[in-house]
Amino acid sequence: MSTTAVLTQLDQSKPEAVAQLFKEVQSKLGTPAVLVNNAGKDSAGTPVKDMPYEQLDQAIKTNLYGPFLCCQQFIRGLEGSEQQGVIINITSVHEEIPRAGSADYDAAKGALRNLTRTLALELADKKINVNNIAPGMVMTPMNQSSLDDPDTWKQQVQSIPLKRAAEPQEIAHAAVFLASRDGRYIHGTTLFIDGGLMQNLGQGA
Predict the structure, then answer these.
(1) If we measure between CA atoms, which residue out of 99, 101, 170 comes closest to residue 133?
(2) What is the mean pLDDT of the chain?
(3) Distance (Å, rounded) from C-alpha 104 to C-alpha 97?
């Protein structure tokens, strides 16, 4: 029976751990053609003046260093081959929209946006497409506390024109499209999947 998946647990902020993951994938599945950087850590809601260094450090390492290291290994794996590659970084609407108390998360996602744009310039002649997907509110465990409180949930979706959060598969379908041949001319951009939230900024000001 052939291997169809490799499941592992690692600290993606550690270069040696990420290198070992890609070595294992290469050994069991062959050279990967698509990389989706989806691991992330949300803000703890701490103002800058009160934020412990460790909180900032963990957010940056998870949301920026991890994708950087995975992109690095992915690119090295494709070097010298004729294989088409696709990198999809999952950022957030907060790559553009700051929130008070979220300097750690917002800074990391904004940096990941610019990492994606830089990679798009570096990899354009190497047959590797690079883009961001920036979700708004999604019904995942990261939003579990809001999901469990109907009043909080109702309040939070008021700023979303479609008045609902995204289902996880709506984000996944966009990733599948960007990874397909139909998405090959999309390069160096951010696809916002937010129910219109970005269009609602500043309304009523």
Answers:
(1) 170
(2) 92
(3) 13
The pLDDT tens digits of the residues spanning 92-106 come to 999 999 999 999 999
What is the side-by-side strand order in the sheet with 85-90?
A: 34-37, 85-90, 128-135, 190-193
- Structural domain includes residue 53: yes
Is the confidence at residue 1, as pLDDT, over 60? no
| Backbone phi and psi for residue 165, each to the nearest 5 degrees, phi listed first | -90, 165
What predicted TM-score, i.e. pTM, was given to this entire model?
0.91
Identity of residue 71 = C
- Residue 115 included in any domain: yes
Q: Which domain holds residue 173?
A: 28-137+167-198
pLDDT class of 124 with cuts at 50, 70, 90? very high
CATH number, domain at 37? 3.40.50.720
The tally of CA atoms less than 13 A away on the side-chain side of residue 183 is: 25
Q: What's the structural domain count of the chain?
A: 1
Q: Give how far Cα 79 sits from Cα of 35, 85, 126, 144, Å.
A: 15, 10, 8, 41
Does 10 reside within a domain?
Answer: no
Does the residue 39 lie in any domain?
yes
Q: Which of 53, 65, 105, 185 is catalytic?
A: 105
Across the strands, what pairs with 133?
Answer: 90, 191
Residue 53 annotated among the catalytic residues of the structure: no
